[in-house]
Amino acid sequence: MLNQRSREATLDLVDEELDALLAGASALAAREIRATRTGPIYAEPPSAERLGALLDGDAELPVEGEPLDDLLESCGAVLAAGRRTAPAFFGYVLSPPSPIGVAADLLASAADQNVTSWRSAPAATHVERITLRWLGQLVGFAPDAAGVLVSGGSMANLTALLVAMRARSQADADRRLLTVYMSEDTHFSVAKAAAAIGVAPRTVAVDTLREAIASDRRAGRQPFCVVGNAGTTATGAVDRLDALATVADEENLWLHVDGAYGALAAADPASRHLFSGIERADSLSIDAHKWLYVPVDCGVLLLRAADAGRNAFGSQDAGFVRVLADEAAEAYAFWDHGLELSRRFRALKLWMTLRYYGARRIAAAIGEDIAMASYMADRVRDAGDLELLAEPSLSICCFRHAPPGIAPGALNEHNEHLLKALQRDGRAYLSNATIDGQFALRACITNFRTTRDDVDRTLALVRELGSRA
């Protein structure tokens, strides 16, 4: 207990207040976890008007504080008005966090380690480097992977292109001539990353990659990187990574695999064959918050060569970050391996999750998600008023409502209206994709709580709302 406040305006709490705060926060967290177990996605249909009524009283900056009970009550109302990653939430590539991950995030925030380097956060740095190796082993990328944890897949892809550029081009190269190759299904974050660093993105098919490289070189361009997909966001498609790796090797290009969503399926023994060649990539991006059941933000860039990041970001000439240590482990600094300096202890939730559940149990959960997508596809095939628009790949199933009374030309508009109604309804949640010009209802299942009943209820809801659309 604090016997005396040394400052008039201290922000600290006496022990009784601290206990009440943590007990209230813990109760809210438990409520959210329980609500996420069953749903609905939204307690009430979301609307700007309702949120305005809830929050517009906060338009002015608070001058004086408010009681803890009032604050927790308001916080609970905000959380209740949000979206929950319930078992029938199939909209985006976002897994619910396991209870272990939730607890780990709280502990990471309480410890507040700034994981810039070993000297700043020795234990956290060691945990992160171990966790990176574990992830490399989990997906068959490399047994001794290096890399860095980042906010998400977009930052991982940006970091990867910077590393690739440094590894496969001269420091004084004209960036406008540097060329990175990707497929038309590659996530738009790769094109954004290319634009951010000033290099030229080019969309090509795997079968025409060699010709595109040769043509670009004749035109004076400088190819430096190939990006492969290990599970596209729209349909879950996996590129022929072995074929891409062969071309990259022969042409001396960096191979980066965007596995933000799908690479974690390589942990499932039944799916590992789909990712043949991933072990030949130079770098791999993964979003652990997409399919490893930890809270956002938790993106990963894995590197095969431990010194690749340092070659791109090394800051040996910056005197104020000079590390005075003789042992290599104690001299390690993450600022030499990525863009960030200040970094939160993201690795703790991964480290605790992998230790508590183990690789076998996590792989089994991923495998069950994949099985749920296949089950959904089977139910769609059996239905007279639903149409499968693509074979399920990984944990994604794309289909549409196609009742007999609607002309084929009107199905896109019909399904757009249906999706809007479904997302507002709150009992289930799908997103959309365009497949061969057709508007698809897209279900992505990355939830360890999803059952066949949840799939059946979602398809029944599609029919129910489709009859009104």
Spatial shape: globular
Class inferred from helices and paired strands: alpha/beta
Task: Please state how the strands of the largest beta sheet are arranged side by side.
Answer: 1-7-6-5-4-2-3
Radius of gyration: 24 Å
The oligomerization state is single chain
CATH architecture of the largest domain: 3-Layer(aba) Sandwich
| Largest beta-sheet details | 7 strands, mixed
How many separate domains make up the residues? 2
| End-to-end distance | 61 Å
**CATH C-level label of the largest domain:** Alpha Beta
- In DSSP terms (H or I, runs of 4 or more residues), the helix count works out at 14
Return residue spans where pLDDT drops below 50 for at least 5 consecutive residues.
none
Helices and strands, in order, run as HHHHHEHEHEHEHEEHEHHEEHEEH
CATH topology heading of the largest domain: Aspartate Aminotransferase, domain 2
- How much of the sequence lies in strands comes to 5-15%
Helix content: 40-55%
**Average pLDDT metric:** 94
CATH superfamily of the largest domain: Type I PLP-dependent aspartate aminotransferase-like (Major domain)
Extended strand count: 11
